[in-house]
Hints:
This protein is α+β, with helices and mostly antiparallel strands and about 400 residues long. About 25% of the residues lie in helices and about 10% in strands. It has helices spanning about 20-25, 150-170, 175-195, 200-225, 255-265, 315-320, 390-395, and strands spanning about 45-50, 50-55, 70, 130, 145, 250, 270-275, 285, 310, 375, 380-385. The strands form four sheets. It has a five-stranded mixed beta sheet, covered by helices on one side. Helix 5 links the parallel strand 6 and strand 7.
Amino acid sequence: MTxxxxxxxxxxxxxxxxxxxxxxxxxxxxxxSDTESFGPWDTQVIMIANNLIISSPNMKTIPGIVLGNAxxxxxxxxxxxxxxxxxxxxxxxxxxxxxxxxxxxxxIPDLLLTSHQWVLWANITKDDVNWACPHMPxxxxxxxxxxxxxxxxxxxxxxxxxxxxTKYVEKRGHPSVVASTLIHAMKRNVFKLKDxxxxxxxxxxxxxxxQRCFLELYASHTFQTDVRTRAPNLQIKGQCHPVxxxxxxxxxxxxxxTETLWEAGVPVWQIRKRQFIPRDINVGRVTKLFxxxxxxxxxxxxxxxxxxxxxxxxxxxxxxxxxxxxxLHHYSTALPVDTDDIFPxxxxxxxxxxxxxxxxxxxxQPHHSPSPVVFSSRYSGxxxxxxxxxxxxxxxx
Length: 397
């Protein structure tokens, strides 16, 4: 079947081979329109790609998903294209179970972020920078700082989430490795944007790293305070929370995880071999993959070597997370050296917030053993016990 990828997309991944719709209708005929009564083993929508069935019990479309090899390349907007879990649903990974709760663009419900959350999805361009020498030729390396209204929204978002998560962690009574790592990373990124004149590419890289840190911390907090225990709290078999379409959602090959996420109201798509489709399954409709045309695939103007090539996995997920330690590219001796001790100032006045004071390098922070991350099922107790392995903690800390 001809791919429905945007015509201008750079295809540096294995495009799934989709079964034509007229063949799919014969193989998986729709047999009901009453999708409101569907259970976790029914499918609102179904398609076949690479001889695998992809279906969802609670969503009516199937976003584009890479089922084979892909190249992790820095794109012109600072993101990772169609394999970016912060832009489109990806495969479930046990080290990062909260990524399915990444909020979709502009959907964070917190009233205090209403006027500032736009910056979490903003694509920075040269017009968003105050240049030190604005009349220099564009071919010359220019240094600048991000404009104040953007920096103010970045600071306000950071202050709100850091204070919210810190209060929760203190109330809970034991530390969170994930929270402390992402909080420290956001602080570093805000300091860089405020204090360091940078070339445009560096500014874009630091801003997108801040955006990723915020969205991941927000998703992790949602996971800990709400979604993690939703399924066990259900009292009736076949009951589920309404699906929250503002969450990113996730692809999985696990039937039990599919049921648990369906119960919790998390968008989920199950991938399975064709022989594992029940004969009595209810099918709402057949479809093809939907590739978001707004996702940027164009490479940066000065493309670097790819960070990773191959299948989705832990290594690819690690490389997507600079978390505050973004390398500044040495295009000029005028660029400052990026070290741990160049951020002594406080970005906001003490009367506004003190959360950016006393920034401590990760190596100086007290070490805590990671707590297991549990996604619980209402039937069998802990469904999956996931740990942030020492390697992962070392990587992101």
